[in-house]
Every structure is written in C-alpha cells, then in structure tokens.
Amino acid sequence: MSATTSLKLPDTLKATIAKVAALEGKTAHALMVDTLQAAMEDALARQQFYAGAEAAYQDTLHTNAVFRGADVKAYALARVAGSQPVRPQAVPLDAAKPVSAAHD
C-alpha cells in the first residue's frame, strides 16, 4: 500500500534531483523513492549497529572481560594467512586504565 506525501523542496535540490534522475534513466519520483528507501535501510542498519555495540558494552561491564587488541590483531592476521592460531584469551578489564580511541 502506498500513500501520497507532499514535500517542499528548495529549487536547487529539485533541479539536482531532475538532473540525476535523467542521468539514471529514472523519473524524479522513482529516484526520490529509491533514495529514501536506501536512506531508511542505512538508518536501520546504523541503529542495529548501535544496539549491538551497546549490548557488547553492557556484556563487557557484566563479565569484566576484554581482549587485548594486539592479541586480536595477531589472531586475525594469522587466520587471514591461512594458519589456525589459538584464540586470544580474555583478560580482566583494568578500570584504572582510561579508555582511548582505537588506532591501527
């Protein structure tokens, strides 16, 4: 089922939509629908990512266990190289160390 929605677009955006739609062989309406659909799929995926990250964070707080970044990196690189390395072991989270931005 579809519903009609009205949007007030700036003239420059309307012109850009018309130009891009013509280049893609679509109507302006089809381009806008496709664009909105893709944006909503991206937004939902982003929200699922955030929810998963929050769940992982809560699990870390609950278990107090983390993996050393260097251990995980070495494991991943060995797997990519075709080895079957021993999985990294979880270690207790050291609350005395500040959390810093990821790197590498």
What report would you give on this structure?
The N and C termini lie far apart (48 Å). This protein has helices at residues 11-23, 28-63, 69-80, and strands at residues 65-66, 91-92. It has three helices and two strands, in the order H-H-E-H-E. The model has no long low-confidence stretch (mean pLDDT 92). The chain is elongated. With 104 residues, it is mainly alpha-helical. The chain has one domain (12-87). The longest helix has 36 residues, at 28-63. Helix 1 crosses helix 2. 59% of the residues lie in helices and 4% in strands. Strands 1-2 form a two-stranded antiparallel sheet.
Q: What would a concise description of this structure say?
A:
This protein has helices at about 10-25, 30-65, 70-80, and strands at about 65, 90.
Features:
mainly alpha; 59% helix; single chain; two-stranded antiparallel sheet
SSE diagram, text form:
Blueprint: H1 11-23, H2 28-63, E1 65-66, H3 69-80, E2 91-92
Antiparallel strand pairs: 1-2
Helix pairs in contact: 1-2
